[in-house]
Write a structure and sequence with these properties.
The chain is built from 17 helices and eight strands. Helix 11 (218-232) links the parallel strand 4 (207-212) and strand 5 (236-241). Helix 7 runs parallel beside helix 9 and helix 11 (218-232) packs parallel to helix 13 (266-282). It has two domains: 1-65 and 356-388, no CATH class; 68-347, TIM Barrel, CATH 3.20.20. The chain is an alpha/beta fold. The chain is 58% helix and 12% strand. An eight-stranded parallel β-barrel has the order 1-2-3-4-5-6-7-8, surrounded by seven helices.
Length: 388
């Protein structure tokens, strides 16, 4: 049985200096008060155009991002691949609007697909649909509101951009993940993903939709999607995650007076996540999956499912994924045991990636036990190194 407690393997890519930096960073994000203050101070600094880029780039950016450009990610890509871990280049610029910016983002995603085509160390690409179209348009597409002529043109442009990306991924034979987003725009994303899968997933899963299992309706959605894939004779590509918009979802549901799409408890989320893993493994001839999780129990459970159903550790239809700078004890121990593992490597200009970085800080503070676990493992490894 694989163990996630082996810190020598977990941190073997880290120098003592890097380990010390990670320790200091996780000490900071373990304080919700400090994180809240840091977010406020960062927003103020950006508003008054105070030069904070150097400080951010040397600390939180260095921990969780590969660089400002694809070229700057080279060292991270090679360092991960040295230990058998692939890279998923994630252009993490958010909040851009306007057709020109959507086109720039589309081209950048195409650049990541092209780079993946050149390098075995980059097994997947990824994008957010909100980087390619207005949020308001996706909301209208999701709830069936009639579109204006201008919105119809934007919708057509969105379809073209997504098809360009998926076609490039198909030509490169490199799968692409379509990230999940807020529930009130997710139907449009689901529909677009299903269209692209029907078109490009005939022989293998090139296009993957992302399923947030903190939603109580997603397990059933997986099952209905599998039926559609069978009827359409294509493969279903799914990235399974727990989710990233919980507070926003609950607040909106309360404000607008509808049932929250979020599970009542973390226990229910964990149950549905593991049931989804089981369902996908049982249907592995139709569903190819990426388990995007920092949860040790779910990661271990997937290895057990694979063993039970005699699926090889390096089967290309199953991948584990974590974020750069987080859960190295899972990523490196899985890779060392022979499983297919990849890290999300966010990149982009420091100032424009800040929203992503602040969410990471929030996530580590809010997820029960996440920061404590990261810190305890770092402390354990630092002690081990001092004693040898």
């Amino acid at each position: 049985m694989i163990s996630f407690d082996n810190t020598e393997i977990a941190f073997r890519s880290k120098t003592n200096v890097e380990l010390k930096r990670a320790y200091k960073l996780y000490k900071i994000v373990s304080s919700s008060t400090f994180v809240s203050f840091g977010k406020w101070a960062t927003n103020v600094a950006l508003t008054i155009r105070f030069p904070i880029k150097r400080a951010v780039k040397a600390t939180i950016f260095k921990q969780f991002c590969g660089g400002e450009t694809i070229a700057e990610c080279n060292n991270t890509i090679q360092q991960l691949w040295k230990y058998g871990i692939g890279t998923i280049l994630d252009y993490s610029v958010e909040g851009k609007n306007g057709e020109d910016n959507f086109e720039i983002t589309c081209q950048e995603i195409l650049n990541t697909v092209e780079r993946a085509n050149q390098e075995e160390a980059i097994p997947y690409s990824v994008f957010k649909v909100t980087g390619l179209a207005p949020f308001s348009l996706l909301e209208k597409m999701s709830n069936g509101t009639k579109l204006s002529e201008k919105e119809k043109k934007s919708c057509a442009a969105l379809h073209i951009r997504i098809d360009r990306i998926c076609h490039a991924a198909f030509e490169a034979d490199t799968p692409v993940f379509i990230d999940a987003e807020e529930s009130w725009i997710q139907k449009a994303i689901d529909d677009l993903s299903m269209d692209m899968m029907a078109k490009y997933n005939q022989k293998r899963a090139i296009v993957y939709n992302t399923i947030q299992l903190y939603r109580w309706d997603r397990l059933e959605y997986i099952k209905s999607s599998k039926e559609k894939a069978e009827q359409g004779s294509f493969l279903l590509g799914l990235k399974l995650v727990r989710g990233a918009y919980m507070e926003k979802e609950r607040d909106r549901a309360l404000e607008k007076g509808y049932r929250s799409p979020i599970q009542n408890s973390k226990k229910e989320t964990d149950k549905d996540y593991d049931l989804s893993l089981e369902y996908c493994v049982l249907n592995i001839d139709r569903i190819e999956i990426c388990a995007g999780t920092h949860n040790e129990k779910s990661s271990l459970y997937l290895t057990e499912l694979m063993e039970t159903h005699r699926i090889k550790k390096n089967d290309p239809r199953i991948c584990f994924a974590q974020l750069l700078g987080m859960s190295d004890h899972i990523s490196y121990n899985l890779s060392n045991a022979g499983y297919k593992v990849a890290k999300y490597v966010p990149y982009g200009p420091v100032e424009e990636v800040l929203p992503y970085l602040l969410r990471r800080a929030d996530e580590n503070t809010s997820v029960s036990g996440q920061t404590t676990r990261e810190l305890s493992l770092i402390i354990k490894e630092r002690k081990r190194r001092r004693s040898t």
